[in-house]
Amino acid sequence: MSVEDNTFEITFLPDNVKIQAEAGESIMEIANRGHIHINASCGGEGVCGRCQVELREGEVTASPGLYLSEQDFAQGLRLACRAKANGPATFYIPIESRADSTSFKKATKAEESLEVEARDPMVRQYNLEMTPPDQADNAPDLDRVSQALAGQGLTDLDVELGAIKKMPQILRNENFQVRASVFFEPPLADPQRPPYGRLLALSKAPLDETYYGLSVDVGTTSVWIRLVDLATNTVFPAVGDLNSQISFGEDVISRIVYASKGNGLQKLQSQVIGTINGLLARLEESYPKFRENLFLITAAGNTTMSHLLVGVEPKNIRLSPYVPPIGSWPSIRPSFLGLDVASHTVMKIFPAVSSYVGGDIVSGVLASKLHERPELTLFIDVGTNGEIVIGNQDWMTCAACSAGPAFEGGGVKCGMRAAPGAIEEFHYEPERKKHHLGVIGRGLPIGVCGSGLINIVAELFRGGVISKQGKYVEGSSPLLREGEDGWEYLLAPAQESAGGRDVVLTEIDIENLIRAKGAMFSGYQTLVEAVGLSMGDLERVIIAGGFGSSLNLDNAICIGLLPNLPLERFTYIGNSSLTGATLALMSTNKWLTAQEIRSKMTNFELSETPGYMDKYMATQFLPHTDGSLFGL
Amino acid sequence: MSVEDNTFEITFLPDNVKIQAEAGESIMEIANRGHIHINASCGGEGVCGRCQVELREGEVTASPGLYLSEQDFAQGLRLACRAKANGPATFYIPIESRADSTSFKKATKAEESLEVEARDPMVRQYNLEMTPPDQADNAPDLDRVSQALAGQGLTDLDVELGAIKKMPQILRNENFQVRASVFFEPPLADPQRPPYGRLLALSKAPLDETYYGLSVDVGTTSVWIRLVDLATNTVFPAVGDLNSQISFGEDVISRIVYASKGNGLQKLQSQVIGTINGLLARLEESYPKFRENLFLITAAGNTTMSHLLVGVEPKNIRLSPYVPPIGSWPSIRPSFLGLDVASHTVMKIFPAVSSYVGGDIVSGVLASKLHERPELTLFIDVGTNGEIVIGNQDWMTCAACSAGPAFEGGGVKCGMRAAPGAIEEFHYEPERKKHHLGVIGRGLPIGVCGSGLINIVAELFRGGVISKQGKYVEGSSPLLREGEDGWEYLLAPAQESAGGRDVVLTEIDIENLIRAKGAMFSGYQTLVEAVGLSMGDLERVIIAGGFGSSLNLDNAICIGLLPNLPLERFTYIGNSSLTGATLALMSTNKWLTAQEIRSKMTNFELSETPGYMDKYMATQFLPHTDGSLFGL
Asked: What's the whole-model pTM score?
């Protein structure tokens, strides 16, 4: 250090980033300058206490206060916004204080992709101005309406029974100045065919132009809905809930089995309808009269979820040769299914490619723009049923992998869904043989969710606690012990857990994760090789699904779940199924594009594709039997 | 009588027809030779007793027997099949023994007109033969079906939810050889537009090709239905029943009033649906499984009945300017209305011209072929609401007349509907000042129905008992008396009536009939004059409706209900509303023709047409103030 240079270094762990600093700067200022995110919801005013950092080496000017007890202070905790640097120091940023940049990124991406070129929804509204009848012209009300529609170029419309029942009253109440809502059935096969129009409803012309559409993502685990003002393409925040079918089985296979027994199909249908109805009731709190102005629903779900939503027996989905009853769905009246919407509301369900590559993937690809771009792209939706699409604007192949429930926290001793209390983030310090936990909701841990499992296994593998074979390395950690299910690693002792029992990771859990990641990875390999390419040719990797948002890329590559590619090729796109459904809600053209995507996709049944099993067996190592795939 | 000529004359009353006969011939043989119909359901075997005739003059060889008591014989009754002529004689054929030639004629006509040029129903069936799925081709079931349909030229079909729910099971049960039922929505405005197809159902391909359609005539008083095998255009006998709405009002106005109160609309709808359901249950006795193979219903009714069937508030029909909510109906799912048919059944309702010229008239005109022929034709449906159409293949005008209830037996002291016990036929012998009654069902009389009223008034008018002014001529008959409502004619004393009370015809009854016939006649005049023609220009008169079948033409002309034209210009076509509906059931082309008929018709609101009231006033005589109209 020269006399001219009175700067010094502040080191931030766990990323080991070193930033030059001057005396008197706050630790927060220094971190910001280095693009290191530390939570500070008060903006650095010292009043929220969320920017706690742990002083590991050196000293700073700081004192205890409202948010730091004497004991905290003694253990090294400081508020980054209040602590002033006065010399070299090293800080550890606890998981709780790290900004969730991933979810910011995701949110930004999702909103961006919700732009459509044209406002051309399947339901459009028209203001009709008619001359009231008199003795010289006493044509029937509907003739008058038809003429007014014809005046706007709409001839040969079919008319809903519901639209005519209240027609006489509405026409007279509104003195024959009304709003007509017309649904245009998109052509199924021949795009040249004129769309078939259907008058859904006549209503009072409101002061504003608002009318609504709703996009729905029917997931096996969660259901999300999103209201859109179709007059202006204003997108409102999505709301979601657990799919209450979950009480009848966690994965699609168990749902199909349940549906095949007695009135199981009706029961599962009424469960998911009930879940959506609950979400609609929540929407109503913010948009009190949306139902009467809701005309269109687009819904995307996997093949099984779509069948259960409509109430079509899904039995054959799981029986070889895996023939789903319906790929491309006709228009459906959701009120007939029990959905709490008006009878005039029409529902379009995304088409499925196959039994295990469903409408949610078609919708997701639509959202991802894979089909619009020249780059060779891998689209992944990781879950119990992992779906893979590889292709670009010219061609697409797809496949589903039976990953098993590990990614959803299933089949794991202390596994759980990504809910409050789940260990999601994990950092292991090999030198100190200590770990740090990031728990959803920031309370005490209850168990481990799927992304947590990936992070734990990756960190322990890097730290030498887990071997390439997925076994614990004897003596590598004091937290290893022999439990009732064999060797296990103690993540949190009972007294530091919310459930009052030890939270552990067993070797069986590791095996399950390796099986799951192997199913995915061998799937990519099979599809890539089927078109004569190799993994390195992948120019983009798009990660979709709720899982994607919390996935740590380095860790996922480390265990061999994701291919070993430069990180900048990866993108998270969040709930792309909902995003795609929202796009199709706003644009008939997007809907038609989804049909094209579906018909373009070549489906591979992996279990029946030669070579798949060999590839799968080779994945049963960390990261892979062939280390060269991961630069090893 | 010369020695060479040993023939003699037998005279038959009341028609005063004289036939040459030889000794030993039976009276039946002689009558048959002269085309005089006498009932003989046993074919002349003497075992049915239905050919009783009354010997008025001369003698025959005959004796009493099983069917004739000594007393009958003494009063002159003989069995026509058993009595042998042996010299000149005069017989009176009682009404009971006259064959109902009118109804034979009607039946013949109706069957004749049920022929369509082409078999092109709106629902057609296709046999689909598909290759069962295997691992090489595991496309969704519906894709497979769509491809098979496309192979028969059917692309871009919409698909019913009902059709897909059972699809997987039916395909597999039938090893992918099934029958598809497809509905083609006829174009509404642009006939060049390709019809919009909709897959209604997949079903087991039956051994025969049978599938059904149903035509329905929804009348204010009665409802008739008729099953048709659409594969072969085999027409089964119609079945009918009273419209059970009748408990809530006899005419359309009282139904509209009832519908406007509380849940009156729902109540009336469920009544007529209940009536049709009852008829369907009767059909099921003869055609046990017709419902699952019933795909199409065509329904015709007056404007009010159509609205009540669908459950659309009919209030404005009776409020000036008489605007019906719906003229042209969209396709309707009758199962949604509560009809006991499968959800795949589609219903097409005939379009109405105006509030009082309904789909039954459009259907009736279709059946009458008025629209196909060059002759100037008057089409009449006589009833509480009498409808009139005048026109030919080039143009049509129409109007409705508020005839009042007299033709249905309403507003008449001893009036009743044309049901067993109603006096329908009446013959008056001026010389003997006696009358003969024809009672429906051949029992004792209860009252007088509409056609009976016409016959009685005409006969008494001819016999000098009723004056041109519609008043009784004092002293003209011993059966005239002053009753509590003024002068009346005793048709049957209490001891000869089924109801145990005198059956009479009052002067007020005559007034009501004159008002009713006047409303019709002034309607014809108004329409004829509106197009610059006169009554004599009418080349055909077609009488439709249940009433037509029992109408005596001479008598109807005599009182001024029908125009004074040669009898050969008149035709009865029975329930032309049901016939037209049946034609449209069998042929899309006929359905489209009905739409053309509807749009061709120019409707006149008589009450608002200048000159109508003057014409009406002039009709308030028998037959008319202007006797020259009736050759007087």
From this structure: 0.83
